[in-house]
Design goal:
single chain; alpha/beta; seven-stranded mixed β-sheet; globular
């Protein structure tokens, strides 16, 4: 179903099954398509990944003491884009199948991958002996979180940050209206798909009490891709760089 404007929950179990199926389609010659889709267009996947990392990575201000927490890390796409000479990278994803692939692909020292959901991030970090981080990556995760879990999840993100921290959020947004895909069969993906595309204004309502009122401010924001790389009519990739 395609549901516009109305607030509708998606089923996390369906999303988990979807990414289990995606992991089964992993290909060494087009690895990032697992989470960027476009299975039959590896050139577009490569170009989008290149444009995203080249544009956003300089905004992170990475240094030798950077401690990066990558939430919804998938198979480690952003881990591939980061220098090994940082203090630590921690990737977390609620798909055990994707984390298994990430661990097999990882060759960098001080880079770790763990299974866990965003609304349990504090528990995941504590369980694995991890502390706070000064760089947070959230690349396309909020679209899979229901409204009633957004505040809790973002509050945990804020508490997982050091006093000075940068948060990079890249999220597909509804250009004019909220759009929810619920048990929507995608011909492109050959599977049922569930996602929530919120407008920028809706996202700000969640950011305000959880991040902005806790000392973060939006340093930069904007649309990520030029028209040629955004092939959706109703949604577009948008980014926020928040800093405290």
């Amino acid at each position: 179903m395609r549901i516009t404007e109305k607030v509708t929950d998606i089923d996390y179990n369906e999303t988990k099954e979807f990414f289990k199926n995606r992991a089964g389609k992993f290909r060494e010659d087009n690895p990032y398509s697992v989470t960027m889709y476009q299975d039959d267009n590896s050139a577009l996947v490569e170009e989008r990944n290149k444009k995203e990392t080249e544009k956003l990575r300089p905004m992170l201000g990475l240094k030798e003491d950077s401690r990066v927490l990558d939430i919804a890390c998938g198979i480690g796409r952003w881990a591939d884009a980061l220098p090994e000479e940082i203090e630590e990278y921690c990737g977390v994803d609620f798909s055990g199948e994707l984390i298994e692939i990430a661990n097999k692909r990882n060759t960098k020292e001080h880079f770790f991958f763990y299974e866990g959901a965003i609304n349990e991030i504090e528990e995941v970090l504590k369980k694995n002996g991890k502390g706070q981080y000064n760089t947070i990556l959230m690349m396309g995760i909020l679209m899979y979180i229901n409204d009633n879990d957004m505040i809790l999840s973002l509050e945990q993100i804020e508490r997982s940050c050091e006093e000075h921290a940068v948060i990079c959020i890249r999220e597909p947004i509804g250009i004019t209206d909220r759009l929810t895909l619920k048990d929507f069969f995608s011909e492109e993906l050959k599977d049922n798909y569930n996602a929530i595309y919120r407008t920028r204004e809706e996202l700000m309502k969640f950011f305000s009490p959880t991040l902005l009122e806790k000392g973060f401010s939006i340093r930069e924001e904007g649309f990520l891709f030029e028209d040629a790389l955004n092939n959706r009519k109703e949604t577009s990739q948008y980014y926020f760089i928040l800093e405290r």
